[in-house]
Amino acid sequence: MTGIVAATRRREARRAGTVAIALGLVVLVLFALSLSYGSFQVSLPDIVRSLLGQPTPPQVDYIVRTLRLPRAILAVLTGLAFGIGGAIFQNLVRNPLASPDVIGVTAGASCSAVLAIVLFGASGGLITVIALTGALVTGALIYVLAWRGGGMGTYRFVLVGIGIGAALAGVMSFLLTRTDIRVAQDALIWLTGSLNARDWDDVRPLALAGLVLIPAALLLGRLLGGLQLGDDMAKGLGIGVERGRLGLLLTGVLLVATATAAAGPIAYVSFMSGPIAARLVRGGRPALLPAGLVGAAVVLAADFIGAHAIPGIIFPVGVITGVIGAPYLLWLLATANRTGRGE
Amino acid sequence: MQASTLQAQGLSLGYGDRRIVDDLTLTVPTGKVTVIVGPNACGKSTFLRGLARLLPPSSGSVLLDGKSIHSIPSREVALRLNILPQGPIAPDGITVTDLVSRGRHPHQGYFRRWTAEDDAAVTAALTATDTLALAGRAVDELSGGQRQRVWIAMALAQRTGVLLLDEPTTYLDVSHQVEVLDLLTDLNETEGATVVMVLHELNLACRYADHLVVMKDGAVVTAGPPGSVLTETVVEQVFGMRCRVVPDPVSATPMIVPIGRHRIAA
After folding, report:
1. How far apart are CA B4 and CA B65, in angstroms?
2. Right CATH number for A31-339 from 2.40.160.10, 1.10.3470.10, 3.40.50.2300, 3.40.50.12780?
3. Which of A300, A322, B34, B42 is 20 to 30 A from A35 via CA?
């Protein structure tokens, strides 16, 4: 008699598994493509040989291991971080608009990073630390402001976040107009979100953070299944709601902030990935890993398009994701109220 | 599933400075159906949330099996007592099976996998609520009555000895109301579950309650078997409405016939 329950659970688990594997394959293909394609084409066997440290034709090692590999790995890691971080926020607040790049958490990271670049000429690891601090402070501010009066209204959270994001955008514009044009230009390119000219020094902090934060997110993500049902229900199920939510938000903020520090606030990746993954997985489950894989695929694809779509011009990855993401945001805003899904 | 005792001792609850339940003492009869009634804003939902440790008391305490409920780890409480709050949220597109499965959360650790026992508990909960045939459907496709039964199934899957329900019959038409109350009575009779619920409909409350608790302004006015508790004077005092109380022709419990200003036969 347990037939139908077990069968339904199996069906849903199989779907989630298939989606994850398919997304993983897409990421793998895009990853291989970005290692192989370019002004100097490298064949697939040569890539594998180079990665395994076997002898390869001249220049291949340099191109694959020094030029393309860090960039591709960075694309995967930032995509994972933005995707998972975004999905955490969206699931917790039960609103797709609550992604960190809409509500100003990413802006907090980039604003403090720009401040550091412009005022102190910071670079490398220092930017990571400062961006982390900025994102945490912004996140805490939104949490405190939206929390007041007990219970976290979802609209309140989104509106407070958008307000803070707007304020930070103002601060950034002010900083940029007041600084030397060349410094400002550097900061602007960084602000668009770019993987150009990234090396292993950019990869390392993000890889380390990912090693800790991604498993933490997936583990804490198990609480989302209860938290999705509302605070009272979650408490009734024995979940420590406040602590769980704080842990999840903290993990999400750290993921997004380290990714922002490494590659700039690549527009809309954390905003798009969660809903796309949820639509693929179906069933209203908090699909964190699929969201991360969608993010990785989006960043890899957008970077590839930006680099190769128009010969001779290299668009930063953030321009491409922005072009895709902005219409999606408009569509979501237009339909959210009509179907009442925004609550 | 274990039978647990539940008691409120000098319990005061409120939001911010506003005190809603004031110094309330009540022992919930174990293995019985307790129904809390009272006018709007009398604090009955707040009291239920307090009993379920969803609100910290400003003074007094709730005792679960004789121990302060706030001193027991939340997960352990969730194995003995659960609450179906008002207006729970179902995520978009969630299936009945997945939703009811989430009631198994307190039985699972961070690393414990889903087992055949969990499958059996979910199936039993769906069977008891007559929703097994809906197991593969999405919750948002269901009717209001079906959805309410699914939420109750989720509460059942948690397999606790004490079930708290905040107005489980709101938004349901009369046949579904009776269906839900029958279902809860089944649970009480077959499994010995202690049921505590807030209800609006006085006549159904009297029919289904073993123990009726009448509240007004955050305090218990009277409590006991409906037949001895719900008199014309009590209704007038609590609800501010004149009425006649006659025996319910079906259950012989008190039936309230309201008296307004119009439509009164000489």
Report:
1. 6
2. 1.10.3470.10
3. A322
